[in-house]
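Shape is hard to put into words, and the shape of a protein is harder than most. The fold becomes a row of whole numbers, each drawn from a learned catalogue of backbone shapes. The outcome of that step, for a single protein, is printed below.
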Amino acid sequence: MHELRFVQHISKEEKYISLLPQLKALTENEPDLIANLANITAVLKEAFNWWWVGFYLVKENELVLGPFQGPLACTRIGFGKGVCGSSWKQKETLLVTDVEKFPGHIACSSASRSEIVIPVIKNGEVVAVLDADSEYLDHFDFTDQKYLELVCTGISSLF
């Protein structure tokens, strides 16, 4: 049994630093992809209390909803569509401070105000994206980007 350990009243960066080795320990001896992605989303949701966090998996020519924490979500997203599909197409992290200003934003929930999407890349190809949404404007920053990119790099070997 695993227990998540972090102190609530520390900086966001300190929280990420404390979580990275825990995420590695959680996933390194578990061969099942879905179990690992489910636990990663649970850890991130518990640690940061985001509105929504989850994975979309590349299946043929679209992103298909994978493990997530939060309210109902869009089930399928096309290549280049919305923030998730655009991150997939561009093969780069998209940090959106106000989703209403993102051209073609897909509103899975009207409560979502800002978003960050990080591609999981294996052998030069996007195999999934990690998506986090907040009900607050300008919630995500370069600290989130830096550490969530490390998470996604670390888990690319799971695919």
Residues 12-27 form the longest helix (16 residues). The mean pLDDT is 92. Residues 50 and 134 are 5 Å apart (CA to CA).
